[in-house]
Amino acid sequence: MTVISTGSGRIRGEVVDGIHRFRSVPYAAAPEGELRFAKPQPSTWDGERDATRPGPIAPQTVRKLPGLDLGSILGGDHRQGGDFLTVDVHTPDPSAGGLPVMVFIHGGAFVYGTGSAAVYDGMAFARRGVVLVTINYRLGIDGFLPLDGGDTNLGLRDQIAALHWVRDNAAAFGGDPDNLTVFGESAGGMSISCLLGSPLARGLFRRAIVESGHPDMVRTPDNARVLVDGLAAKLGVPATAAAFRTLSTAQLQAVQTEIITPGQTLDMRDANGVDTGVGLAPFQPVLGDDVLPTHPRENMDADVDLIAGSNAEEMRLYFVPSGLLDVITDEQAVALLANSRPDAAEILKRYGLGERPTGEMFLEAMTDLVFADGARRLAEEHPGRAYRYRFDWRSPLFDGRLGACHGLELPFVFDTLASAEGLVGSEPPRELASEMNAAWVRFAETGDPGWAAGVVRSFG
């Protein structure tokens, strides 16, 4: 056992293979009762809190894809609700002092996931001398629905509260509060892109790594209103925080699951006919409050060093297990994209519409539109020092057709391949995992990941 004192209270963790591990440590009070749809509030406790066991995670619906095991990444089998605004911490030595600190924000389209998922185990980072922190935050309706009478961008506010807690308590875990790197994937990367442009997050971190994310998945207040009013109508209540507080988590999850089901999503196109979520992510951060007073691109923190990149074949995660890759027609591809872009046909013509196999053409176009183009633009426009990467290793699953899909880099970044066989297969290249983990650590230590700024570093 290992016991330390934080600003919130004393916690008792455990030592595993020489690494000190603390689980489910609250950085904010449980968002229940009047704290639901409200800004995160401090959490304190008396005595010694047991931090040896996993705790609850944010309410969510477990997502499944045919023939693919994503449990190690999404962690949906954990208990949900209650005191879930927590962090997990791995450190090589709480008494060391001066260690770089890395905070990971999980993905999941702003509606799934947990920082406690098996793939995000921090042992490999800690063995390389890093204090590794993973966080949970509010998702979906509770985290990203701007209700009248409630606070906005609660998921982002949770992340900011977690970063404040980590800075305030870094030294207790052996870390340097002035050397903090935040990194995340998918919705986590998009969150970090927003934090880069948020005045409330200014000065909280020194470096950032954005994996398969960018700041363009944000909504205007008018566009977000479509989601607010649509959900309120389905639930039969006023579009207010007070009314939503009267509903159970099960009621909210049921209607949330309905609108994120393919083919059931509300029409989230704005006045220009564009859905920034490309039909995939109705819940997004919202512009116009103190968290995001302007678009994040307009206020990027030049003092933060950045790595940004994506995977070579992101959309294979969705197109291959579902079978869409093999059955979609040109007409269907245009119709699907037209649900989020008015110039759908013109876009797809640039990718070979009518001249290439439809599935491959559409996959390439959607990979760029949803992930790659935004990540490239983020790195190119960031006013500070910026590095780019691309993950090219291809999974052998589905007879090799799963490819370099969305999320595949995660078990390599964390060097947790053994927990992700359902995604990487039985013989993934362990040297690649060691290489990526070391590069992320090197960046956190020095700001230099090991390749030149402006050069796209290929992994795999």
Number of strands: 12
Per the CATH scheme, the topology name of the domain at 2-220 and 281-310 and 368-387 is Rossmann fold
Q: Report the mean per-residue pLDDT as an integer.
A: 96
Poorly predicted parts: none
Name of the CATH first level of the domain at 2-220 and 281-310 and 368-387:
Alpha Beta
* Reported CATH architecture of the domain at 2-220 and 281-310 and 368-387: 3-Layer(aba) Sandwich
Give helix % range: 25-40%
Q: Judging from the principal axes of the Cα atoms, what is the shape?
A: globular
Kindly report how far apart the N and C termini lie: 39 Å
Largest sheet: 12 strands, mixed
Please count the helical segments: 16
CATH superfamily membership of the domain at 2-220 and 281-310 and 368-387, which one? Answer: Alpha/Beta hydrolase fold, catalytic domain
Structural class: alpha/beta
Radius of gyration: 21 Å
Which strand-content bin applies to the residues? 15-25%
Give, in order, the helices and strands: EEEEHEEHEHHEHEHHHEHHHHHEHHHE
